[in-house]
Write a structure and sequence with these properties.
Blueprint: H1 4-30, H2 37-44, H3 48-55, H4 58-79, H5 86-103, H6 105-112, H7 122-140, H8 148-167, H9 176-190, H10 202-212, H11 221-239
Helix pairs in contact: 1-2, 1-4, 3-4, 4-6, 4-7, 5-6, 5-7, 5-8, 5-9, 7-8, 7-10, 8-9, 10-11
């Protein structure tokens, strides 16, 4: 015997997925300007109130489109075997990021082109979380020269800036060396060739220990929080 509520929820999910798929195609072919509520509703064969009911508002629809379009990229990044060298893994992640942006300019602009303090698309948040994981692996190996957050913000800023700079150029003028030089410069700015913990001083040791702190199960959550604050202060003092 079927459950009416389950059937209704399944129907909403199918309708939502269909609308998002249609909107993603409109985005790819016509850019963000093509994603008016009226245009999406017409292309999906539905009514504008349905879109508002399923997504709340246009921003909710845009977030859903960004997640949909970015999910395959995230799956590709997750499926790629991590490099044995965490710094090489970061370089590979940079190349994937830039390649994705150049291949999907409208989607990339939707995710990163209209920054608002305190608000990011869920897809952008997921991407930044993965970047943070790569940075943490470098810190755990003792090869990070600056704090994790600063390193992640720097890589993110340089990577997005590189993509938008290349997108602003005609395709025949896009020099791939721009991305390579920017990648190598940022990598050199935040990492060391040898484990930084071999260098005397508390700051580098604090960075490495900070990266491994979530695995310190012998401590309570409160103790890890306090120790994390102390380690952050030590690391910041050394990178000032």
């Amino acid at each position: 015997m079927s459950d009416p509520e389950s059937e209704a929820a399944s129907g909403r999910d199918r309708t939502r997925a269909h609308i998002v798929s249609v909107a993603a195609r409109l985005l790819a072919s016509g850019g963000r300007d093509a994603l008016s509520t009226r245009a999406v509703a017409a292309a999906a064969g539905t009514q504008a109130p349905t879109i508002y009911r399923l997504f709340g508002d246009k921003e909710g629809l845009l977030d859903a489109v960004a997640e949909y379009g970015f999910s395959s990229y995230l799956q590709d990044k997750k499926a790629s075997p991590p490099a044995d060298d965490p710094v090489e893994a970061l370089r590979a992640g940079w190349d994937l990021h830039v390649g994705f942006g150049l291949a999907n300019p409208a989607l990339f602009s939707l995710m990163y082109g209209d920054p608002t303090p305190g608000r990011q698309s869920p897809a952008a948040v997921a991407a930044f979380r993965m970047l943070g994981e790569r940075i943490r692996a470098i810190a755990a190996a003792g090869r990070l020269k600056v704090g994790e957050r600063l390193a992640a913000d720097l890589v993110h800023a340089a990577g997005c800036g590189t993509v938008f700079t290349l997108l602003a150029l005609p395709e025949e003028r896009r020099d791939p060396r721009l991305s390579e030089v920017a990648r190598d410069a940022v990598t050199a700015a935040i990492t060391t060739d040898a484990p930084a913990v071999e260098t005397p001083g508390p700051a580098t040791a604090a960075m490495a220990l900070r990266a491994a702190l979530p695995d310190a199960t012998a401590l309570t959550d409160g103790e890890r929080h306090v120790l994390g604050e102390w380690l952050d202060r030590l690391a910041a003092d050394g990178s000032a």
